[in-house]
Amino acid sequence: MPWITGKENEESSLRQNYIEKSYGCSPPKALFHALLPGSLTVEAALALPIFLFAMIMILFLFRMMQVQYLVGNSLDRAAAEASLFGGLSQKEAENLAKAMFYKELAVQKCPVSGIELGAAGFSWNSGKGDSDFIDLSVSYRMRFPLNFFGRRSLSFSNSCRMHRWTGNQDGAENREGKEWVYLTPTQNVYHIRRDCSHLKITIQSVTANGTIQKKYQPCGHCVRKKKPGAMVYITSEGDCYHMKIDCSGLKRTVYMVLKEQVKTKRACARCGGK
């Protein structure tokens, strides 16, 4: 045992006498030693790093889920847009979808900083070789914030298969010379181009604060009288917020009809306006 000065020995004796009077007997050694200075400091030094490590890994789990969702969503949207272009070979369609994939990552603000090599860390896998489909498969690795049992990263992969457009490839006119246009059930205009930006829906996830609830109305399908969670979904042109990403209000049905059947509607100012 270390040498104790007379003053420290006296303080220790007074403390032990106080405990004996309180308990009516000599205190257990464990209790007596627990009262010695520095014991809590040692316990905190051992427990605090473990607690911080657990919290960091839990936060990383949520970031991992966010990145995987955004990558998968960007892959789906890129394949859907590329599948609308006719007259392209399978290789050209896949290359176009890959270019659109990186664009969607930027639009949705995917945090690629957590991916090894950033945006250059995506590795594309070969498709199934079916000319009627666009097959996209991408793999990537996410870095752990700390060394996790000798591992520094974890591998992920997302895949998507989208049927290519196999309809009329002659543009807006068919063999009889009649013009076709595109419209939705809720819009009062028709569109000349299928890829018009007004026919696309850009979904954003935002925090459900008071400003969003004042600016947007609750969706009649997925919200109704329910209390929104921490995150809701909105669109650039919509006036409602949604609780579910797969809500029917976030989907847009597009019909292709003859122009002579929509005489009561006006042309879209963006793709068909004069």
Topology (SSEs and partners):
Blueprint: H1 6-23, H2 29-34, H3 39-82, H4 90-107, E1 123-124, E2 133-148, E3 151-163, E4 180-183, E5 189-190, E6 203-207, H5 210-215, E7 217-218, E8 231-235, E9 240-241, E10 255-258, E11 266-267
Parallel strand pairs: 5-11, 7-9
Antiparallel strand pairs: 1-2, 2-3, 4-10, 6-8
Helix pairs in contact: 3-4
Brief rundown of the structure:
Helices cover 34% and strands 21% of the residues. With 274 residues, the chain is of the alpha/beta class.
- Number of alpha- plus pi-helical segments: 5
Estimated helix fraction = 25-40%
Q: In sequence order, what are the helices and strands, one letter per element?
A: HHHHEEEEEEHEEEEE
Proportion of strand residues? 15-25%
Number of strands: 11
Secondary-structure content class: alpha/beta
Q: Which descriptor suits the 3D outline?
A: flat
Spatial separation of the terminal alpha carbons: 96 Å
The largest β sheet comes out as: 3 strands, antiparallel
Q: Supply Rg.
A: 32 Å
Poorly predicted sequence stretches spanning 5 or more consecutive residues: 170-175
Order of strands, main sheet, comes to: 1-2-3
Mean pLDDT: 75
Give structural attributes.
single chain, 274 residues, alpha/beta, three-stranded antiparallel beta sheet, two-stranded antiparallel sheet, 34% helix
